[in-house]
Amino acid sequence: MPKALTDLDHRIEAATGRSVDTLWEQRDRSLLDGPLAALVDAHRVLFQAETGVTFHRVLLHRLASGEYPVDGALLERIDRTTGQLEDAVAQRDGLQSTALAALETVEAAAPTTPSATAVNLSPQDQAALLAIAQGARLREHLLTQRVSVVTASGTRIGSETLRRLETGGLVERDTSHPLHAGQPVALTGAGRTALSAPRRTVPPTTTPVQRAGAWPTPATRSTEARPRTS
Fold first, then answer.
1. Separation of alpha carbons 119 and 135, rounded Å
2. Which residues are bridge partners to 54 per DSSP?
3. Per-residue model confidence as pLDDT tens digits over 179-216
4. Tens of pLDDT along 137-163?
5. Is 64 helix (H, G, I), strand (E, B) or coil?
6. What SS3 class is residue 2?
7. How far is it, in rounded angstroms, from Cα 122 to Cα 79?
């Protein structure tokens, strides 16, 4: 079932630069922490309350639509449903205040420029962080002595990629475990932030790309060599 819209959805997406669906998914994968995680948790509860309001409102509309004969039983159901709708609205409004407070905390901590939140991760590093987020260990091969990160999904990450991520402060490993047993590798707070932050987009080139087989543009045709006349 599609998520019911709350009054805060657009404001949440504007403050975080991510859709509500993306935030929910990142929260499920433990990629969010601090105020942002608290905001998503508060929004989920608010969404459930908003769904309850919608349910009782639709039910009340159906009872008054003429589908049922007007009698004492119908009037009693309408009265009961109206009371349930009032309770659902009161609960929704209280939870919305809680979510609004969490949102204002995130907005207050947001940088003044959107570009400051953008992270320029290469596709390879982004894929590595996603795999490590699901659980990973650094192991040494008994025969070749080569080390690599083995993730829970079975993906292997090379030592050079791991070194780059460690140097950037995006991942950390527990060196208290021996390599042959496997050293746990996990995202740091900066790694979770980098993975969940909006990606930088490359601005489109100002020169249009010529389609294969397309007729040359007038500017191109004017520079083409013309046949000599005798």
1. 22
2. none
3. 777 889 988 878 887 877 665 544 444 444 444 444 44
4. 998 776 776 788 988 888 889 888 888
5. coil
6. coil
7. 59
